[in-house]
């Protein structure tokens, strides 16, 4: 074997000694101990072809460290992405809460927010049908407050005791190690079908909320009832809400399936890109505030996390806004190591007796200790408060911030450096709630209505959204192999909404409807529809922050292209150019238009709307090209707005939709390029042309 295969050998003399000159343009590589490394290519061995030597501390250190690079991924919410930013408080809320961050108008508090899926592993795709985590760490001047929420305001279960079962059921089966990142399988539907309390949450997870277009376009919820407590000790209940500045948006299911293949990082890339271009993701934080009297008269138990309080019943009071404006410097150090804990609350905020929340308060601290390796995970910069800390806690694995001096206990009578003391005025006080009761393992009967709000959610949706919910149930249950599990779910749906049950039963090809189970509490049919629960009733009315995919080829008309780009950018949208080759095309003026994507890598599922602007040459070839055909077919099937020029008609013909063009397809007339472009972008503000859906996609 010849040594000449190894380039670094060229620098060596016969005995392997280095003749290379030191590289002065880069810092010298060192070991973890700081010792300069002379050779990073070759391990130490007995002779050039001989065995490796154990003595090689440089190689052993390098490989040892590599071997230990992974930490356990989160047991749930493993897949996620986080960003830095700030929370800006609107006004003095001291009457409501003593929480320091809500006292002074205009004051900014640093935050770190992490968005996640729940079921999938760390390397899974961004767009499974799933709940999304929405966790925010506020680094307040009186300690860290973690608001660890989701993008849905309710949850599957009422008691933390059932969480391991729920998570076991949805994640990979223990024998086969699949399915990954999906709920469309027997174990999940078996479990939830036996847990009627999950019905309301299932309506949410079968809705488009479970396939968001980006975390930027999601609402967030604290889910549980919490307490605000003011300096006088007066408390009210609150529920936390995040409303996205750009409005809500989701994708359609068939699109989600394809996005997962085309760009598994779709969400994290979208967030990253938005922040890089200065279009900072933003949400308004608000609270529903209510007192014991309301809690008493409300139809459901405010401690039951499977229930929400409709915004129409208790409107949201805005408190401030969160702006995410900075990506992490290092994904592992920040996003992976961030440790959210529901127990991290600050003076002025308190927990309620929600049994799910009570269980969470144990779980998060416990899981971080395992995941991050010891009790000092609070010393990791992303987890450390940004306010001063003084306490007598000490030692443990990886202690980084250590006390000085001899005094590590309290009380003490040392005069020199005696350490901190408690502060009853500014310190954290639990709300002085009167509690008495018998020690029992018992679910309150006030938790027993499992269907009413599920039905309310369904009737609050537009026809389009109702259709998507039914389709989602049919899709998921069609992946369930055991027929009795399918039937059990349809039976539950009869208690939610008879028409939904019927549609799902038809979709599954059932000959008759199964008998509905006897509910623990009679489902109410008098709950009014709540518009706030629908995505489509709360559209953004703008195409701002969205992405237009423009397909071009050689000879694309320069004027139409420029007009469209200008109109999109004026709206605050981003234009991506898709071309037959990544090096781009020359337009009708002979100017080079660089491409962002080659057609195969830039399918239309990655864009919110598309424009087809091929040149007049080579259309036959384009019409026969699979990726071009898919681009058009998918954009049409996913109800996207499609702008097109005259040449594109040939492509429509090739895929058989020439006769089906509707009001969602707009001609970008070269003679009126500016008007046509602004008209098209104006249409795009509706995000999708839903009337098309009724005409296609049905079997
Ligand atoms: Fe979590 N959850 N959870 N969860 N959860 C975790 O903590 C748990 C629940 C939520 O971006 C774990 O750091 C229990 C509801 C988010 O790092 C773990 C119960 C809500 C995140 C845990 C729940 C959430 C987690 C896993 C039932 C919405 C990701 C890793 C009582 C209000 C945070 C970790 C991040 C993560 C336990 C239910 C939100 C095991 C026991 C309800 C956003 O501690």
What is the overall silhouette? Answer: globular
Separate helix tally: 19
Output the CATH topology of the largest domain: Catalase HpII,  Chain A, domain 1
Radius of gyration: 29 Å
Number of strands: 18
Distance between the termini: 64 Å
Query: Residue share in helices?
Result: 25-40%
Query: What's the pLDDT, averaged over the residues?
Result: 96
CATH architecture of the largest domain: Beta Barrel
Explained architecture:
The protein is of the alpha/beta class and 699 residues long. It folds into three domains: 45-372, Beta Barrel (Catalase HpII,  Chain A, domain 1), CATH 2.40.180; 450-537, Catalase, four-helical domain (Hemocyanin, N-terminal domain, Up-down Bundle), CATH 1.20.1370; 543-698, 3-Layer(aba) Sandwich (Rossmann fold), CATH 3.40.50. 27% of the residues lie in helices and 15% in strands. It has 19 helices and 18 strands. It has helices at residues 57-67, 163-170, 186-193, 199-205, 253-262, 266-276, 292-297, 331-336, 355-372, 452-459, 463-478, 483-496, 498-507, 558-571, 619-623, 626-637, 648-655, 673-684, 691-695; strands at 80-89, 108-117, 132-140, 143-150, 220-221, 226-229, 235-244, 282-290, 316-326, 349-351, 547-552, 574-579, 585-586, 592-593, 597-598, 609-613, 642-644, 665-667. Strands 1, 2, 3, 4, 5, 6, 7, 8, 9 and 10 form a ten-stranded antiparallel β-sheet that branches. A six-stranded parallel β-sheet has the order 15-12-11-16-17-18, with helices on both faces. The protein is globular. The termini are far apart. Residues 1-18 have low confidence and may be disordered. Residues 74-77, 80, 114, 116, 133, 135, 148-150, 155, 160, 163, 223, 305, 338, 340, 356, 359-360, 363-364, 367-368 line the site of CIS-heme D hydroxychlorin gamma-spirolactone 17R, 18S.
